[in-house]
């Protein structure tokens, strides 16, 4: 099958969307599918408001239609709701091409956190609902997010779980961070919507470590000088950092999944998080981590868990299963003329 994925999120961004799309493409190609991307790479772009590290690219629906036509995919996935995503949506609707979409980010809440005006959240959800309305399948990362979108009147919602690279993320020696224990670690973007101040203000024993970068880093370093800000870490260095922690603290209330939770669990490191979507779908409370409305209580509980049991839970997640689910939710670009025809009909 020729699969086309259109995404505004791409390298050099370091986030769950980019990592998920790359992992799924790798698995699909290994299984014999052809996967092509339309991304901002090589295009004129400008920084996204509030996310200066994210580049946005403007293109017309007509130009997008030419690109899609040249690739002639059997299935189209519009992964993001950025300019490329909107152009692809318009091109598909104009040409009668069917497509699926991905819901990765709560943009409505993120906008409201930065523009505290009445009605911003409702407007954001209205725009997102309009974007996904023509989709033949809105792929969401967890059942709780799926239920929420269904309640918000999104149609054709499909639960598309995530995976983890067990060859990279596994237990290592715990000497990678030579800091006083217990080591409480946060990994991810340093931004207001991530709830990082909830983590850094916890009144619990231990050393607080942050892996990642973002617009709030300078302010956070001034407010919390005792914390250790390591910046981005990659590959085995990142995996060993996760494995060296005593607990991964995930303070976000708005993330749609949080791959870092899975990666920590695959290293045997338990997770402490709020009992909100999506931690309730990823973490087995009392087994691979602890969930609570009281983040400090979740940390204290997670520190008591058996790391071998944490690892067992993580083994149930794989990128192979994620890719299989993704493929099963795709639809033919052009609907078959009859039930007797093949499920996928080439564009040309």
Largest sheet: 6 strands, parallel
Category by helix and strand content: alpha/beta
Residue-averaged pLDDT: 91
What is the overall number of helices? 14
Radius of gyration, in angstroms, nearest whole number: 21 Å
Proportion of residues in β-strands:
15-25%
End-to-end separation: 13 Å
- Secondary-structure element series: EHEEEHEHEHHEHEEHEHEHEHEHEHHH
Shape: globular
Helical content, roughly? 25-40%
Q: Spatial order of the strands in the main sheet?
A: 2-1-5-6-7-8
What does it look like?
With 348 residues, this protein is of the alpha/beta class. The chain has 2 domains: 172 residues, Glycogen Phosphorylase B (Rossmann fold, 3-Layer(aba) Sandwich), CATH 3.40.50; 135 residues, 3-Layer(aba) Sandwich (Rossmann fold), CATH 3.40.50.2000. The chain has 14 helices and 14 strands. The two termini are 13 Å apart. The C terminus is likely disordered.
Question: Nutshell version of this structure?
Answer:
This protein has 348 residues and is of the alpha/beta class.
Question: How is this fold's topology laid out?
Answer:
Elements (H helix, E strand, L loop, with lengths): L1 E5 L9 H15 L3 E5 L6 E4 L2 E7 L3 H11 L3 E4 L4 H13 L4 E3 L4 H8 L5 H13 L5 E3 L2 H9 L5 E3 L23 E5 L8 H5 L6 E5 L5 H7 L4 E4 L3 H10 L2 E4 L8 H8 L4 E3 L5 H4 L6 E3 L3 H8 L4 H8 L4 H11 L19
Parallel strand pairs: 1-2, 1-5, 5-6, 6-7, 7-8, 9-10, 9-12, 10-11, 12-13, 13-14
Antiparallel strand pairs: 3-4
Helix pairs in contact: 1-14, 2-3, 4-5, 10-13
């Amino acid at each position: 099958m020729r699969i086309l994925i259109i995404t505004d999120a791409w390298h050099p961004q370091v986030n769950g969307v980019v990592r998920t799309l790359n992992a799924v493409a790798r698995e699909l190609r290994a299984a014999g599918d052809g996967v092509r991307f339309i991304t901002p790479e090589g295009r004129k772009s400008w920084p996204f408001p509030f996310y200066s590290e994210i580049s946005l690219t403007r293109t017309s629906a007509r130009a997008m239609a030419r690109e899609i036509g040249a690739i002639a995919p059997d299935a189209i996935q519009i992964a993001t709701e950025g300019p490329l995503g909107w152009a692809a949506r318009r091109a598909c609707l104009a040409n009668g091409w069917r497509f699926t979409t991905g819901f990765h980010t709560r943009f409505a809440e993120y906008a409201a956190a930065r523009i505290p005006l009445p009605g911003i959240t409702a407007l954001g959800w209205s725009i997102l609902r309009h974007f996904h309305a023509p989709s033949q399948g809105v792929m969401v990362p967890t059942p709780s997010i799926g239920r929420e979108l269904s309640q918000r009147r999104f149609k054709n919602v499909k639960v598309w779980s995530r995976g983890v690279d067990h060859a990279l993320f596994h237990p290592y020696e715990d000497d990678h961070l030579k800091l006083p224990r217990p080591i409480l670690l946060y990994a991810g973007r340093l931004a207001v919507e991530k709830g990082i101040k909830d983590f850094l203000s916890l009144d619990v024993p231990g050393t607080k470590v942050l892996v990642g970068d973002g617009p709030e880093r300078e302010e956070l370093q001034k407010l919390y000088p005792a914390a250790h800000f390591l910046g981005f870490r990659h590959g085995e260095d990142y995996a060993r950092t996760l494995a060296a922690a005593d607990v991964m603290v995930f303070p976000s209330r708005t993330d749609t999944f949080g791959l870092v939770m899975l990666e920590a669990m695959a290293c045997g490191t338990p997770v402490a998080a709020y009992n909100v979507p999506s931690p309730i779908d990823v973490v087995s409370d009392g087994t691979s981590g602890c969930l609570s409305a009281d983040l400090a209580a979740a940390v204290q509980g997670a520190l008591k868990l058996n790391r071998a049991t944490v690892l067992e839970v993580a083994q149930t997640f794989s990128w192979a299963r994620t890719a299989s689910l993704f493929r099963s939710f795709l639809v033919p670009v052009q609907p078959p003329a009859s039930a007797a025809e093949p499920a996928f009909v080439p564009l040309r």
